[in-house]
Design brief:
Layout (H helix, E strand, L loop, with lengths): L19 H21 L22 E5 L5 E3 L2 E3 L4 H9 L7 E5 L5 H14 L4 E3 L12
Length: 143
């Protein structure tokens, strides 16, 4: 702050930025957000009903379609090609299109190849398709 000693004295231009009001505004905004943030989360208590239905029974003899690392295909223990897959599935399921089929593929098989097998199965009329994977026994490790 400059003080005039007389009317004829000119004050020098003050080129400094006073950031005190800026800091005050920022602190007020910080406090507002700190108070408002917990209020924006809403806790709704919902009592969900307990399911009493029994789980669906597992099939006695599931049909596994396996895609190996070398892109060979097999249904059960029988090796086949992608063109032979529909007829082999009809034999394995007894022409029952509502049978659940399981696909297991090697980790190194490209995703596109797995999708090609699934598309062939869906094109044949088998819509219940499950994917088989390994369950982790410990954190980050597979058996």
């Amino acid at each position: 702050m400059a003080i005039r000693l007389s009317d004829s004295d000119d004050l020098a231009a003050n080129a400094e930025i006073n950031i005190t009001p800026f800091i005050d505004v920022m602190l007020v905004l910080l406090i507002i957000f700190m108070v408002a943030a917990p209020l924006s989360t809403v806790d709704v208590t919902v009592e969900l009903p307990v399911a009493t239905a029994k789980p669906a029974p597992r099939p006695a003899e599931p049909v596994f379609v396996t895609l190996h690392a070398d892109l060979s295909l097999s249904v059960g223990d029988r090796s086949l090609t992608l063109a032979e897959l529909p007829s082999e599935l009809e034999i394995a399921t007894g022409m029952k299109r509502d049978t659940r089929l399981y696909i297991s593929a090697d980790r190194s098989v490209p995703y596109g190849e797995v999708m090609a097998v699934m598309n062939r199965m869906r094109g044949t009329g088998y819509l219940k398709i499950g994917l088989v994977g390994l369950e982790e026994t410990t954190e980050g490790a597979t058996p």
